[in-house]
Amino acid sequence: MHSRRNALSGLFPKLTALSFLVLLTSTAYAADKINCDTAVHDTNQQLESNNNKPVNDEAGLVKLLRTLNKDDVLPVQYVTTEYAKKQGWSGNPQDSLWKVWVLNKKEIGGDSIQIPEQKSGEKWYSADLESVRGLRSAKRLIYSPQRQERYLTTNDNTSRIIIKACI
Known about the structure:
Layout: H1 2-31, H2 36-49, H3 58-71, E1 78-79, H4 81-86, E2 107-113, E3 124-128, E4 140-143, E5 150-153, E6 161-163
Parallel strand pairs: 1-2
Antiparallel strand pairs: 2-3, 3-4, 4-5, 5-6
């Protein structure tokens, strides 16, 4: 029993130092990021100053960014175009997804896309923003699980603006 206590007492300073190092590293990592509320608001201001449409639902975009940061997957209300078509959606942007019962309250997201900033091995995806009654808007979040930066387009990907990495 006495030798076990000596072994544990020698281990305690090492664990404490390791815990401190992990805390310091995660704090430094978080310090590089800004609050998602601020990131979205700043991005919206940039859009407006460039005479582009802003995102009306900033809180919804913040929630989506935080979900992606935490889980690397879209929330359950998103379905791919392929899935929506298999369920009976025409694929025509003028047709509401919600006409198909199983797609009620769903949005298109998770479709793979190509962007100029893409590096070898990276995969990029898009997610609709601000769909209205199942009708797609021109606003999309463009994201990659391999990167913390996200892009926002409000004009069907004609131009993109970066959303800073956020927490």
